[in-house]
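job 3f2a | input accepted
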Amino acid sequence: MSDAGIDRRQLLTAAAMATAAIATSKTAEASIPAPRLPYAEGALDPVISARTVGLHFGKHHQGYVDKVNELVASHKELQGKNLEQLVKATAQSADKTALFNAAAQAWNHDFYWASLRPKGGGKPTGAIATKIEQDLGGYDAMKKLLQEASVFQFGSGWAWLVVRDGKLAVTKTSNAETPLTNPSEKPLLTIDVWEHAYYLDYQNKRADYAKAVIDKLLNWDFANQNLASNVQG
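job 3f2a | predicted structure (233 res):
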């Protein structure tokens, strides 16, 4: 074999090693792993279509996670933190607004997918049902409050069922804002009311989307778990 052939093979080997090193470096820098959907994309049909879930989860949610990893690479003091830690660490930092927005949106989306389940919704059971009766006047009253929070949130945002100072409350936040930044609140469930969450299926009928989610998808087991961890904490 000629020296030119050997040199070419060495160059190709070196290039492959360099590419692998770059990929490994990028993986090492990725502070936040790729999001995972807790069910198949079509599992929420017909309330939320597979098309909507695929776009929402695969493009919007993944995009926020990618942005977090891109931005956190410039902040060594924040590398290795999970999403909740990143949200809390950047919430009051004017120079880290972009990172806060991406991290909060990634965390909110994780929480949103967990707040839904196939064949969910309806009246809850367990401790959350008791708290709803005690603190909010019963399921119908809670449903009305959550529906109103979803519909009347101006622009993009989120509707939440939270524990606030020991009692249940319904609240709403705009854009990427989240109860994580409020020490007196513990989120139990959320409904995403950004347009990308519902527009393909409901167009401008946000009220229909919110009602369908409450009636048919809310994951009360998840709410009970969050309520129990709040009591234990």
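job 3f2a | The first strand starts at residue 157 and ends at 164.
job 3f2a | closed
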